[in-house]
Design a protein that fits this description.
CATH superfamily of the largest domain: ANL, N-terminal domain
Number of strands: 18
Strand content: 15-25%
Number of helices: 13
Shape: globular
Radius of gyration: 23 Å
Helix content: 25-40%
Number of domains: 2
Distance between the termini: 59 Å
CATH topology of the largest domain: Rossmann fold
Largest sheet: 11 strands, mixed
């Protein structure tokens, strides 16, 4: 099967292929993953009862906490000898989220990325530059494989300052830049502040992943850099960067339905909602061998668009604005759980649970977690140098566990109490 054959199928053929892959995923999960087998058994679910795609509602949901509860390898559906890549992401509890790939999984992601890049009009004539922070390094590898499969020239992901990044972009004649919206805005600021003539650059395409960007921000990027922007949707838990992608019409993101089955549910009741209604996006993997996910609640607020796309692709489209249906804090493509943040803080600060104020700010080309902690009597009595060491130790612990930059401020209690 070629990477685009699913798009060319008739609707009945697509549904049949999805059903066969859903049944295969359920059977593999039941046979090889005790977590899924136990839940199916407890709920009286027989995988042979999945006879239509609509029968997916019989299956239980998966939540992020299940990753931590089955740390590290208990959700894998293949032996470790078949795993060729292991990826970690921050979890909701003490343990990290661990996901794995077989060689076939990596080949599948290569096809997914190639399809998304082709939709963004990337060709073998392009030079594609990848620029992600360390937390999304795994995505950088996926984009590299997908672009190379198209025989596109690739500048692999490398950590560079804005000045060096721009130097590579200019001197290497980059035509396609893959990065996060925050990094793209920072690069644009650097171009403007240094009076660089963008007409001297070869860049024409900007692919944005990691978080959503509103229409005004996209328009500013396009006007300042003279590019066309393309949005990709991904998850660090599945993990992958182009589960859904924009086509040339930029009216919603096409879901790779031959690999992921999308649903929109009411997060309060679990009831499946109709098209054009916003709710929580739920995804089921259809082709993943190492790490099958069944009805995974993403926490992302989205809706499935009912009307057909002018591009002619039959893949369902979602509208995604970056809003959440849960308490997770998204920071540059990495979702942080408030409870986990407070658990880590309590190891260094004697403060009541949930007393710290958590916000997301921007510094240079990254978003970071900003934490304000009320200054209690114990902290107030400590020496300045002791407080500095305490704060640095807490920052190091948080950054090691959460994989995002962190800044901690100590504030007087009245500054918290005065807030409405």
């Amino acid at each position: 099967m070629t990477k685009d054959s699913f798009v060319e199928m008739k609707a009945e053929e697509q549904n049949q292929l999805q059903l066969e892959r859903l049944q295969s995923t359920c059977n593999r999960a039941y046979r090889n993953v005790p977590f899924h087998r136990d839940r199916f058994t407890e709920m009286g679910i027989d995988v042979s009862h999945i006879r239509t795609l609509a029968d997916i509602v019989l299956l239980p949901f998966m939540e992020r906490r299940h990753f931590s509860e089955n740390y590290p390898y208990n959700l894998f559906a293949v032996p470790l000898r078949d795993i060729v890549r292991i990826h970690t992401a921050p979890g909701t509890g003490h343990h990290l989220t661990v996901s794995g790939y077989t060689a076939q999984d990596l080949k599948t992601w290569e096809g997914i990325l190639s399809r998304a890049l082709t939709a963004a009009e990337v060709t073998p004539h392009d030079i594609l530059q990848i620029s992600f922070h360390q937390g999304l390094a795994n995505w950088g590898r996926d984009y590299k494989r997908g672009a190379e499969a198209l025989e596109t020239g690739v500048i692999p992901n490398t950590q560079l300052s804005a000045a060096k990044k721009l130097m590579v972009l200019r001197d290497y004649k980059t035509s396609v830049l893959v990065t996060t919206p925050v990094a793209a805005r920072h690069l644009t600021t650097h171009v403007i502040e240094n009076g660089i003539n963008v007409n001297t650059l070869a860049i024409k395409t900007l692919i944005l992943a990691g978080e959503a960007m509103d229409a005004d921000q996209r328009r500013q990027l396009e006007e300042n850099l003279h590019v066309t922007t393309w949005q990709h949707y991904g998850l660090s838990e599945i993990p992958g960067p182009a589960i859904a992608f924009e086509c040339e019409h930029h009216t919603g993101l096409h879901v790779n339905e031959d690999h992921f089955f999308p649903e929109i549910i009411d997060p309060a009741t679990g009831r499946v909602l109709g098209h054009d209604t916003f709710g929580e996006l739920v995804l089921t993997t259809l082709t993943t061998r190492a790490f099958p996910l069944i009805r995974f609640q993403t926490g992302d607020r989205a809706r499935i668009l009912a009307d057909a796309c002018p591009c002619g692709r039959s893949l369902k489209r979602i509208e995604w604005r970056g809003e959440r249906t849960d308490a997770l804090i998204p920071v540059d493509g990495i979702n942080l759980h408030r409870r986990r943040i407070h658990e880590l803080l309590e190891q260094d600060f004697d403060i009541p649970s949930e007393s710290a104020e958590l916000t997301v700010s921007i510094r240079d080309d990254r978003k970071y977690l900003e934490i304000r902690i009320p200054l209690n009597d114990a902290l107030f009595s400590d020496e300045i140098k002791g407080l500095e060491r305490l704060i640095q130790r807490a920052v190091n612990r948080l950054e090691d566990n959460l994989c995002v930059p962190v800044v901690i401020h100590l504030k007087e209690k009245k500054s918290f109490e005065e807030k409405p």
